[in-house]
């Protein structure tokens, strides 16, 4: 499983970084989304891969911590998901506004000089 | 104890007065003047109340413990020297306050002036009475900042702004040097307490860092006291209103530097380096200042250079050291303050009543303003060092020290000659001031007809000139005891009493004085015409101006060189910047991992599940496909991005993170809708762009591909290395063990979010609200490009009748889903504390419910039926979350402490009633508000475009009709 997971993280981030370096705003926004998936999965995987052990504990009694997945990376990623949505929205609006005021969708607000 | 409180009151009184004055209306001239006068008078009264204690050699202290656990205390101490200096500051201050009331015109914002003046007094007193050397530097810099505001009081004039800026740059830069010096002193001594530092002189002088400390310390003192070559800021600061000059450049600001020199003599003085640098700089300043003063045509310019020259004299005395020199320095501080303040005020009166300060235009004012003229002549004579006036006495003492000092250095032998030279020129410029302004023919062509000023404007000058005479004739009876008290507190209690006398018999200093008077008068009388007709500055040297060098340097430092640097190493293009960031991150990670060898790959711990592997084959294909298609096929890329997101969501579900899976799924929906809405505003792009096929573009793409592949490989490697490591016991276990007992919930992730780490979540929702508002405000001013305004192709082709039933069945279903989605949202919210769900998921669900209504119908239809007020939602959410947090204060707990309890509700059963639930309600409301706000703001752009289309059509129609009518 670790092989698959790390390959997934690697390829998601590679695609994201490649798009991040492209000249068109839409490419960059897609790149940022892919990169945020990769980063979220990366942080999530810090708690190791544990199928079938969600951190929902019984009411009362002794809690054997080793029987559950690590809740902390999950809590971190949960807020990260919402915040990355917010930043995507912000970037999208900047993209629309920049397109409206400059007439181009190049990240620099003007086409590359040849 | 009473004294301690008095010290503290004294220190904070001016700041309180400043606060009061700053709240007065801008035309409250008299109220502000009264407030300032009473504040200063109260300060003086307190000060004189402590005189008996201080005169007995007692050091009064006031201490406020600030951070007791760190041993940080604010210590204020008043000894003889700081008592004398504070009295001087307050005494001159009160006269300046009275004078300024009549000097400032009706249009000036007078309360601001008094507020700044009082604050400056407070800062200056802080320098004088600080018992901690770091606090001293803080007050020191405060005087620089407030003097900037005071010099720039008439900020409408460019000269005032430039002068203020120069003064701030020079003195604040010196202040930074002083700060470093003080930090080093503190390290050497082991304490920042002033008394400890002053008593550790031997240790400091023997320390290898002593030269560095000395140089930095002197840079601070010299810049403040306008010593050559840092003197140039002072003439520029003459653009200030005259009361400011009279206060800052006689008794306060510039005297802070010499105060520091005298104060730290026991700690740093007495070495050959000290003597050479301090006395050398002082003598150079004395002569340069006196020579330049003679050639200035501006009254205040002459006084400014004269001030520089006298500060040089005091500095030179501090450099010579020893009981006599220190006493003379302190004595000259007082005398100079008195006669220079009165001269500045007199110059202000002349300027005020005649409209000019140019000595080439002023003449024969004695006939028109005899009182002021007499006062100014007496004060100028004191400045020149004429017998029976106070300036004579301290100058005489300076000459005596110059003659007596014996330490065998080359500078020492030259001292009497240099001192006499300085004396000659100071006589010459004083004489020029007296003769050109008050004698000679009656003035012609002045901007105003000069006459005597109002009585109250002259009163401060009268008092000061009276002091000049009193001290000059009866020194031992008036200032003698105070001078000796001040000198004793600097040099130690066993310093012998020095009797200041008027007559010492005919000795060398007296002969030097006589030479100075005679030669100085002769020089001026012979060269008067050439000086008046010549340039502003000594012959030959007037071209070399320190101010010009400073301007040259500042222009390059703050304007030219930064631009050159930015042109060479900066770029405005985003791509190189991002590339640099990615490469930096890559190499930083590589460098860190290379040496630590922590990248060890363990064996897989869990076997590969074929389903999972297959799932990611699809996911990887989606990711690569999205990257491939994002340029020309945006819609395809968006669908593929959604695919990758769904696989990510499934991965969360697979590896025991139901909360994440739910949230990811919901956010995925909103993100996709958001991007779909954005697609509408992007330009069309066709695949046949020739440039993209060219070699440079291909090289760029290949290079980025390599960077991306390497980075991806690196991240994959790190992820694998960590995942295959054995788990170590961490904080997560604590959360698991305590979630129920401490947080009252069984869903540990939710308990962490709303209870254990609630403060983080509070920050997150605040960010979310800010982003929502930013999006909203950015779009309010947005205008689409003309090509996007036209209706989309599909809408143009289809007739409106066919468009009517477009997606009819799905839209009905979506409408019916509204209540269901609200139900699901509530379900997520309430189960959140115990089972997967929670405020985030519930909030996004409700936002989707609203969103579906917009998609199913159209903006106008929805908004006629439901009113969503997203900003109110966000505000409500933040208030609830913050209020819940603050509720904990009522019970004496820290912010956001949660309380958990289950309540049995009939029919439903046990319901968790933790205060965390209320907090989660806040999270929920903010998420709903922000999400809806962003989506609606973007969706409304179509409406706006439609409106623009209608407008354009109307305009065309009007134009057509107008054309027809014509």
UniProtKB/TrEMBL annotation, chain A:
Primary location: membrane
Membrane topology reported for the UniProt record: Multi-pass membrane protein
Gene Ontology cellular-component annotations: plasma membrane
Subcellular location: Cell membrane
The keyword RNA-binding is assigned to this record: no
Alphabetical list of InterPro entries matching this protein: CPA3_antiporter_subunitC (IPR050601), NUOK/Mnh_C1-like (IPR039428)
Entry keyword set: Cell membrane, Membrane, Transmembrane, Transmembrane helix
Bilayer-spanning residue ranges: 6-21, 28-46, 75-97
NCBIfam families in the record: PRK09094.1
Protein family (similarity comment): Belongs to the CPA3 antiporters (TC 2.A.63) subunit C family.
UniProt protein name: Na+/H+ antiporter subunit C
UniProtKB/TrEMBL annotation, chain B:
Biological role: NDH-1 shuttles electrons from NADH, via FMN and iron-sulfur (Fe-S) centers, to quinones in the respiratory chain. The immediate electron acceptor for the enzyme in this species is believed to be ubiquinone. Couples the redox reaction to proton translocation (for every two electrons transferred, four hydrogen ions are translocated across the cytoplasmic membrane), and thus conserves the redox energy in a proton gradient.
Organism: Paracoccus siganidrum
Domain NADH:quinone oxidoreductase/Mrp antiporter transmembrane: 130-406
Leader peptide range in chain numbering: none
Protein name: Monovalent cation/H+ antiporter subunit A
PANTHER family per UniProt: NA(+)/H(+) ANTIPORTER SUBUNIT, NA(+)_H(+) ANTIPORTER SUBUNIT A
TM region positions: 6-24, 31-51, 81-101, 113-131, 137-155, 167-189, 209-234, 273-295, 302-320, 326-350, 371-394, 414-442, 463-486, 506-527, 578-596, 608-628, 635-655, 661-683, 704-723, 761-779, 806-829, 835-855, 876-896, 916-939
Residues forming coiled coils: 938-965
Residue span, MrpA C-terminal/MbhE domain: 700-796
Membrane topology type: Multi-pass membrane protein
Domain Na+/H+ antiporter MnhB subunit-related protein: 810-932
InterPro entries, sorted: CPA3_Na-H_Antiporter_A (IPR050616), MnhB (IPR007182), MrpA_C/MbhD (IPR025383), MrpA_C/MbhE (IPR046806), ND/Mrp_TM (IPR001750), Proton_antipo_N (IPR001516)
Single GO MF descriptor: antiporter activity
